[in-house]
Amino acid sequence: MNYTSELVDSIEASASVTASQKAREMKAAGIDVISLAAGEPDFPTPPHVIAAAKAAMDSGQTTYTDVRGTVALREAIIRKFARDNGLQFSLDEIMVGPGAKSLIATVLMASVNPGDEIIIPAPSWVSYADIAKLVGGVPVAVETRAEYGLKLDAASLEAAITAKSRWLLLNSPGNPTGSVYSKEELVALGQVIARHPQLMVLSDEIYEYLVFDQTPFVSFLEAAPQLRDRVVTLNGASKGYAMTGWRIGYSAAPAALTKGMAKVAGQMVGSSCSVSQAAAIAALDGEQGYLAERASDYQQRRDRVLEHIASIPGLTAIPPQGAFYIYINCAGILGRTTAAGVTLASDSDVVNYLLEDAAVVTVTGAAYGLSPYFRISIASSTAQLDEACRRIAMSVETLR
């Protein structure tokens, strides 16, 4: 008996989640494995955020909330957008969900009709395309170029748009590349989008606070304010505030779309955790200085890992401007043979080889829609990153 639908059978399990689970299983089996797969900060949730959660529990804030989020949290989100991005929103435009991922699904489920096309620059986060399929959409991958920093350019976007185009999913800083769009680049994309009134933009800005080299972060709507009624700005507490397990994401969208999203969420997930919402208020309204300090720490790790990668023949990487990933081009080692006689024909082969030979867990570039690459996360200690890079170098060195 086949217990799953054709739709479910058509999608893939999250490659990054699968890789992280593999690492946990290897560790449980006593294997000295280093996982560079997880997209999760290795910093702790700030103490004042934890204190706010405890206070919320002590005061009885342990019941269901409005499916859109508490008024107090939505007001804090409004203040955040005004403070950090110069954007003004009203309460009926703000939605809170149990993680940014759930809100992406909610947005698309509320707005996509069967056959609508969803434009996704490649490489992209592993879940975009499969979420698009789950809601009846058609993911349209647009390959980006290394010479443009693996970012979508205006000409490529124009060429991808059809009468069926419904959404552009844009991610800056990006996963898996760490690419950050400049204001000029966003303006150019906005000009293209303005010519196609059927096209909307979901701007995933979850890594907003993780930018390097004094690169300015620009929200898409800051660069293209003329598209205000066609943009959903997505963010959350997970990455910058190190609150992945608290599961709080939020969006700002046209009020009519937010109303539709609330209908979907009301039937699918209900409200977000009340205690987590209280914690998120403390994160958004509290001290923000540590965010830059943590970004600086990630930048130092990035520089260290890039030095390691540059010393390994056959591997190259474009320095990421943000997030905590490095997308490594492995074309230079394809076609080479392992000591066991296996020829590396793809980035999947490379990832499997590094797992078996070096006990280092990475994620294949194929999962993100652009090969031959593999992604590593630098959200690990310097000692672990150094050791992982040493192991990778040794494994590459033994290839024939």
CATH homology group of the largest domain: Type I PLP-dependent aspartate aminotransferase-like (Major domain)
How far apart the termini lie comes to: 46 Å
Mean pLDDT: 96
Radius of gyration, taken over Cα atoms and rounded to an integer in Å: 21 Å
Strand order of the largest sheet: 2-8-7-6-5-3-4
State the helical fraction. 40-55%
Shape: globular
CATH architecture of the largest domain: 3-Layer(aba) Sandwich
Secondary-structure-based class equals: alpha/beta
Tally of strands: 13
Low-confidence sequence ranges: none
Order of helices and strands: HHEHHEHEHEHEHEHEEHHHEEHEEEH
Largest sheet: 7 strands, mixed
Instruction: Please give the domain count.
Output: 2
State the helix count. 14
CATH class descriptor of the largest domain: Alpha Beta
- Examine the coordinates and then state which fold CATH places here, giving the name of the CATH topology of the largest domain: Aspartate Aminotransferase, domain 2
Q: Please report which band the strand proportion falls in: under 5%, 5-15%, 15-25%, 25-35%, 35-45% or over 45%.
A: 5-15%
